[in-house]
Amino acid sequence: MGMIGLIIFFMILSFWSSPVIDHKTGLEWADDLFNQLSKTSAYKIPIALKKATRFEGIIVDLGVNPKWPGADEKVAKIITVNGLAAQVLDDGRVRIRGDLGLMSKAAIMDADLLFADRDQELQDKYGMSGREVIYYWWTGYDDLVRRCIQLNRPSEADFAKFMMTGVLEPSYNFVGIRRADISQNIGRVVFLLGFYVFYAVLYGFSMMYIFEGIGITATKAARKKEA
């Protein structure tokens, strides 16, 4: 029974490792589906816009260190294109000064464009790829988090951290992946989760029967009696 179960296990694995669905393997198909669902759940642009509105009127003044050669000019360009002040300093840093709420709304709208795979619009606006734009925005907010912590401004630090992890990183990481709604794919999700449980149980019982067949079993140790 154990060998039969193991053979079935590897037959299913061979099938799912073959291009059987839209020229993709079953594993790639399942991975794509969950990535698409994840992209939908990671979309927090409306929430971010509401948060940014609360920080309008708060002025930030910080130095950003892009770390890569030539990146300082690109950071300055992104900031100035959106109507904020940016100055490249002699030490390679970029001094940014402007309204935190308005700056954040500009970053959010750029992230929304990349999230929707409208990279060409960002290239037309800044002369660089969408991922570059989002990366340099991320660099600015990374330094802003540290600066706000130093100044004991926890609300601004939390918001800047949210901008990094809830807005900029998802837009960067999900490039090229289309969005999918769980309500329209509930059948596929239930099938995949059920299949995963069945597949794990099949392997577990097959190995258990094989070990029992060759005489290896798990038993309780005999209780030692006191003399």
Question: What does this 3D model show about the protein?
Answer:
The chain is mainly α and 227 residues long. It has two domains: 2-39 and 180-213; 44-173, no CATH class. Helices cover 63% and strands 9% of the residues. The chain contains nine helices and five strands. It has helices spanning 2-16, 26-41, 45-53, 71-81, 100-115, 119-126, 130-150, 154-173, 186-213; strands at residues 19-21, 24-25, 59-64, 85-88, 94-99. It has a three-stranded antiparallel beta sheet. The chain has a two-stranded antiparallel ribbon with strand order 1-2. Strand 1 and strand 2 form a beta hairpin. Helix 1 (2-16) packs antiparallel against helix 9 (186-213), helix 5 packs parallel to helix 8 and helix 7 (130-150) runs antiparallel to helix 8. The two termini are 44 Å apart. 20% of the residues are buried. The mean pLDDT is 87.
In quaternary terms, these chains amount to single chain
Let me know the average pLDDT: 87
Q: What sort of overall outline do the alpha carbons produce when their principal axes are compared?
A: elongated
Supply the number of structural domains. Answer: 2
Instruction: Characterize the largest beta sheet: strand count, sense, and whether it forms a barrel.
Output: 3 strands, antiparallel
User: How many separate helices?
Assistant: 9
H-E string: HEEHHEHEEHHHHH
Report the uncertain regions: none
**What is the tally of beta strands?**
5
